[in-house]
Structure formats: C-alpha cells, structure tokens
Automatic annotation (TrEMBL):
Alphabetical keyword list: ATP-binding, Ligase, Magnesium, Manganese, Metal-binding, Nucleotide-binding, Protein biosynthesis
Entry protein name: Probable alpha-L-glutamate ligase
Family annotation (PANTHER family): RIBOSOMAL PROTEIN BS6--L-GLUTAMATE LIGASE, RIBOSOMAL PROTEIN S6 MODIFICATION PROTEIN
Keyword Magnesium: yes
The organism's place on the tree of life at top rank: Bacteria
Signal sequence extent: none
Needed co-factor(s): Mn(2+); Mg(2+)
Family annotation (Pfam families): RimK, Rimk_N, Zn_protease
Phylogenetic lineage: Bacteria, Pseudomonadati, Pseudomonadota, Alphaproteobacteria, Rhodobacterales
GO BP, one annotated term: SOS response
Length: 467
C-alpha cells in the first residue's frame, strides 16, 4: 500500500495554466468547493464557448503585481460562504500543482481581497489518497513570492486570450479578414467595429464607447483601420479608446499627422528624415516662387489628403505646373509641390514597419508610362532586399509618427532614400503576397508583447505580506 499524499491545513500551490506559479492557500475539508481570488471579473466570447477574464493579485494585502488571467467557463454556480452569504460565481477548471503532483480541479472565482489566503482548496479537489493534517502546515515544499518579481515570470505566464477591436468600415476586405483570422487562430476574441457607427460618452470619471445601443466592453487592444474620408471622426474615436486605457496600435496623433501631407513632411523635416524637396504656399502670387523652390520641371503637385495615388499630378513643364496649381486653387483645394526624383524611374519601395522594425519590403513598379507606382493605380509588386540605410530610414519615419504599424514609402535617389509617405493604415494583401511574410502574425506578436507586460520588479525595501 502506498503512502498517502500528505497536506497540511495550509500549503503552497501553483495554477500553471493561469500564470500563477506561487500562492499560499488554505486547505479546508469543511468547504465543498475551491475558490480563487479574482478581481475585475468579466465574461466574454460567444454563448456557445463562454470565457471569463479576471485579475489575480497573488500577494496578500497588495495590489501589485496584477496577473491577468482568462479561462473557459464550465458553469455558474451559487456558493454559500462560511458566514452564510450566497453568491453566484463563475466556475473554471484548471490544473493545480502542489509539490510534485498536478491534477485538474474546479475553481470558483470570487473576490478574496480581504482574506489572508488568495486560494482555498475544498474537499471536492482532494482525492481518496490524500490525507489532510489539520494541525500541520506545509507538508509539501514551500514556494516563494519572489517569482513574481523575476525575469523568469514572462516564460511562466501563459498567453491569455485577449479581447481585440478592429476599427474598420470594410469588414470583408483582405486586411480586416486577415487580422480577424489571425486573432482567432491565436484564441483571441475579436470584434470588427464600423468606426462611423461608434458614439461616445465623454466624462471625467468613466469615459465610455458605445455601439449599436450598447456600451462597448474594455478592449485589451484596438487596431485602427481608419479610412481617409473619416479621419477626423475616426481619430476622435481612437482618442476615446485611449482614454479608456486600451492599447491602440496606432494613436490618434500619429494618424492625424500622417494623413495631412503638409503636416507629415514637417514631421519628417523636424526629425531630419530624407524626403523630396517640398514647398507650400497659400497666395497665388507665390506660384512661380513655389515652383522655383523645388527646382526645375518636371515637378509633382499633390493634394494634402491624397491617398492611393489619387490627387497626385506630374507636371512636365513649368507652364503645366502653373496650370495645375491654378486649377487646384480654383477648387479651393490644399496642395503642395514636390521635387520629382527622376532616378526612381516609376518605382518606389513600401516598407512595412511593425513595432519599430521593418518586417517586410516590396518594390512597386508603375503600369506603363504612369509615374505612380501604387497598386491601386495598376502597379505591380515584388519582394526586394533593402539596404541598412533604407531600413533605418523607414524605422525612423514610423517612430517619428509614433505608429506601431506603418507603411513607409521610399524613393531610391542618388543621395539616399527619400520618404514619400507614411501610411497609418497600410494594406496587408499586396505585401504579404509579394514577400510571403506573415505580417498579421508579426503584428499580433507586437500586440501581445504590449498587452502582456512583465510585472515590474518590486523594491528591495518592500517585503510581501505574510499570511
């Protein structure tokens, strides 16, 4: 007959799948169910596969560190505590490890913030070969709260499911469906939200975002796919999400700056990033001087909010440039004039930057005699090797606009790379197909890194409370 697995009335344990490597728990055979301290409990996911997210503060009496957890819900159950109060709790199943033994148990989630122990192990979690000694503590090896302030914690904490919103008015286009598929493949819950149908409650205490008559939940991350036609309202929506504490891949400030060509070139100039010589004026009296600033014809005349190559004109002669500028002014359109880089020969390079690093690059060639290389204008694309100088230039441009995801368009000139544009909502289809790179996956790697940060090290002066 084998010896029983001995437990004291208090033991150190771990819930490895929840990212909780050390908890001091009470073992109570008088209680039927087991429970785990959980704050900010929030259900999510479809009704057929419900999940719950919650936060655990593993150190008694302290709110730091905070470990964010998620798990499938197996039940909702009414539980009566020792003081006679009843509470309906979410029930999850997760492996429990004590000593060298691991087995699955059911755990109810409740706020045990006022309790000395963050977990309670009830008799349902104990098998027949376990013997609890009510007068003995720690029959099994003791653990240490120091693990929560160790660099090793990142390798211990599992990848919890995230709740992610994609702001897009085109739910069926390639980029949006690709992002949805990648999020679901990783087990995240993702919702596509039509930006134009969002409305906001703005107040100092509880700023909220609403959609279709309901308040939207808190999202771990927001991926903006804001079209040029709704930049102003779209960036207002992003600011509201930022106010709620959601991680936005691209912030409102960067999107606004990148959409205004004049503002964008001023940002590039401020950060000393190479670009074609650019000039801007309001008065029609300055037309000749404006053309002279960028050099001899041919020159580019570009609307400030042009996208996908639309609103961009090549003026072959000074007289043609004057005519185009006069026409744009007649339409009361804002525009700038720009040096034409002849040596680029109808080609540019799109660098896809994620988290400050160039993860993919393609060369785009214009169709026929068109000087524009945009794929929307019939251009073609192929993978290309870029130089270190080009890589650094693209990364610096994305950083200047504080964009976590950016398409940086470069021209190869005789005096180095020149940034044409920084796109805050770059399409994924062309570059993924041309390069074979999993850009969507790389973006989610970056999101997960930001949303699942390593808890901060505690001060050596602070000592965790003992139960």
């Amino acid at each position: 007959m084998t010896d029983p697995f001995r437990l004291g009335w208090e033991e150190w344990l771990a819930f490895p799948e929840l990212g909780l490597p050390a908890l001091k728990a009470k073992v109570d055979t008088g209680a039927k169910t087991s429970s785990l301290h959980a704050a900010d409990i929030e259900p999510f996911g479809p009704a057929s596969r419900p999940k719950v997210r919650f936060t655990v503060h593993p150190l008694p009496g302290q709110t730091s560190p905070a470990i964010n957890c998620s798990a499938p819900v197996i039940d909702r159950r009414e539980v009566t505590s020792s003081n006679g109060e009843s509470e309906v709790r979410y029930v999850i199943q997760t492996p429990l490890r004590i000593g060298d033994r691991t087995w699955p148990i059911e755990v109810t989630l409740t706020d045990r913030g006022a309790m000395s122990y963050r977990a309670l192990i009830g008799r349902q979690a104990l098998s027949d070969d376990m013997l609890v000694s009510p007068t003995v503590s720690f029959c099994q090896p003791e653990l240490d709260y120091e693990v929560y302030h160790s660099a090793k914690l990142r390798t211990i904490v599992p990848n919890r499911a995230l709740r992610i919103a994609i702001l897009s008015r085109e739910a069926q286009n390639y980029s949006t469906t690709r992002l949805v598929a990648e999020a679901e493949r990783r087990g995240h819950e993702v919702e596509v939200i039509d930006t134009a149908r969002v409305y906001m409650e703005i107040n100092a205490r509880t700023p909220q975002v609403h959609y279709d008559g309901k308040r939207l939940p808190h999202y771990d991350a927001v991926i903006p796919r804001i079209g040029a036609s709704i930049t102003a309202y779209g960036t207002a929506v992003i600011r509201q999400f930022e106010t709620t504490g959601a991680f936005c891949v691209n912030g409102a400030e960067g999107i606004t700056a990148s959409r205004d060509k004049l503002h964008a070139h001023q940002v590039l100039a401020r950060h000393k990033i190479g670009m074609p010589v650019t000039a801007f004026a309001s008065s029609p009296k300055d037309t000749d001087n404006l053309i002279g600033l960028v050099g001899k014809a041919p020159i580019i005349v570009k609307l400030l909010e042009s996208t996908q190559g639309k609103g961009v004109v090549l003026a072959e002669t000074s007289k043609a440039a004057q005519s185009v500028i006069s026409a744009f002014r007649g339409l009361k359109a804002n525009f700038l004039v720009q040096q034409f880089v002849k040596e680029s020969a109808g080609e540019d390079i799109r660098c896809l930057v994620v988290g400050g690093k160039v993860v993919a690059a393609m060369r785009r060639k214009s169709a026929g005699d068109d000087f524009r290389s945009n794929l929307h204008q019939g251009g073609t694309a192929e993978a290309v090797r870029i130089t270190k100088e080009e890589r650094d230039c693209a990364a610096r441009a994305a950083k200047a606009f504080k964009l976590g995801l950016a398409g940086v368009d470069l021209l190869r000139s005789d005096d180095g790379p020149k940034v044409l544009e920084v796109n805050s909502s770059p399409g994924l289809e062309g570059i993924e197909k041309a390069t074979g790179r999993d850009v969507a996956g790389l973006l989610f790697n970056e999101i997960e890194k930001h949303v699942r940060p390593l808890p901060a090290r505690k001060s050596r002066k602070a000592k965790p409370a003992e139960a």
